[in-house]
Design a protein that fits this description.
This protein is of the alpha/beta class and 344 residues long. Helices cover 44% and strands 14% of the residues. The chain contains 12 helices and 10 strands. Helix 7 crosses helix 8, helix 8 packs parallel to helix 9 and helix 10 runs parallel beside helix 12. The longest helix is centred in the middle third of the chain and has 21 residues. The relative contact order is 0.14.
């Protein structure tokens, strides 16, 4: 419970740096960066050693490769994060696979052997974990079978986490791909969350010791109607108020592929309109929405590390401002000048 509260304290959020090896390599390839273990290690060192990052970030979600990696001088990444006041976490699912009998739908795997893996990660310094379920929206889907199977897997994972003293990040993501209207996303998000919390109750999961990581309620990327930022905020929180118990200490929204500035603007509107009366902290757990500018600046070159760290720190600061309801798009134009890393 203490760790769960700490993950969303102080208007800060989480940095998701848990990209699998294949996902990280794909991003490197698009950026013209070599796809090697050393390149991935160097990039992650850039992230964990960013000056001032703990001013905006409470926890970092790592991947199996990352939690075992070290800085060039041999210092483990887990120690660097912990010494900076950032709580280390770990992604423990093994990805979503085709769900038998349900074309176009997927079920996240990784429960086999999970107890032993969680025990090992705890010994390595992790204090929380993450499991992502993927729910696609299209004609005739998601099915009841897909929703219930993923909800049950999330609940079993969460119970195993709490058994070994780790906070489970429960991430049921309704994807934003498609042409569905926002109302359809709301219906499915509400149904998914109802099922997830029913299964959490069934498995005896202590809600005070979890963090929920949901999608914002959004229209599909190719939907002809794209609602305003305030409309997204109102629809998202009104949906959550119907299904998320007040015992949950925090909600850290995923970005789901949203551009960084737009994700910050929507999170800001959520807090401007609901922070004072929300039963939970409303924060962020972003990956690309924080990392993308830094990756593009770094480009695999040591000479660009400082500038890339500045960009990473800046985006994290913008997201913290959004948690306070103080973000303005003008904060992103221009970027902070050199020398302000770690400043106010």
């Amino acid at each position: 419970m203490e760790t769960a509260r700490a993950l969303v304290a102080g208007d800060k959020g989480l940095l998701a740096m848990d990209e699998s090896t294949s996902s990280c390599n794909k991003r490197f390839a698009r950026a013209g960066i070599s796809q090697t273990e050393e390149a991935r290690r160097s990039y992650r060192e850039l992230i964990v050693t960013t000056p001032g990052l703990s001013e905006c970030i409470n926890g970092a979600i790592l991947y199996d490769e990352t939690i075992r990696q070290q800085k060039k001088d041999g210092t483990p990444f887990v120690k660097i994060l912990s010494d900076a006041g950032i709580i280390p976490g770990i992604k423990v699912d093994i990805g979503a696979k085709a769900l038998a009998g349900h074309p176009g739908e997927r079920l996240t795997g990784g429960l086999d052997g999970l107890r032993a893996r969680l025990q090992n990660y705890s010994k390595m310094g992790a204090r929380f974990a993450k499991w992502r379920a993927v729910i696609a929206l299209s004609h005739g889907i998601p099915s009841r079978g897909c929703i219930e199977a993923n909800a049950q897997a999330l609940a079993c994972y969460a119970a195993l986490c709490q058994e070994v003293g780790l906070v489970p990040i429960v991430e049921p993501e309704v994807l934003m791909d498609g042409e569905h209207p926002m109302g359809r996303c709301r219906e499915v998000t509400e149904e998914v969350l109802q099922n997830v919390f029913a299964q959490l109750y069934t498995q005896g999961v202590m809600l005070e010791g979890i963090i929920l990581k949901p999608n914002m309620v959004l229209p599909g990327l190719t939907c002809a109607t794209q609602e305003t930022i305030d409309e997204v905020a109102d629809t998202t929180v009104s949906c959550l108020l119907r299904v998320v118990p007040a015992a949950v200490p925090g909600i850290t929204f995923l970005s789901g592929g949203q551009p960084g500035k737009l994700a910050s603007s929507r999170l800001n509107a959520i807090n401007v309109r609901f922070k004072a009366r929300s039963p939970w902290a409303l924060a962020f757990s972003f990956a690309r929405a924080i990392q993308r500018p830094a990756l593009e600046i770094w480009h695999g070159e040591d000479a660009n590390v400082s500038a890339a760290q500045q960009a990473l720190y800046h985006r994290a600061c913008c997201d913290q401002a959004a948690c306070r309801g103080e973000y303005d798009a003008a904060m992103d134009e221009p970027m902070l000048p050199p020398g302000l890393i770690g400043g106010t």
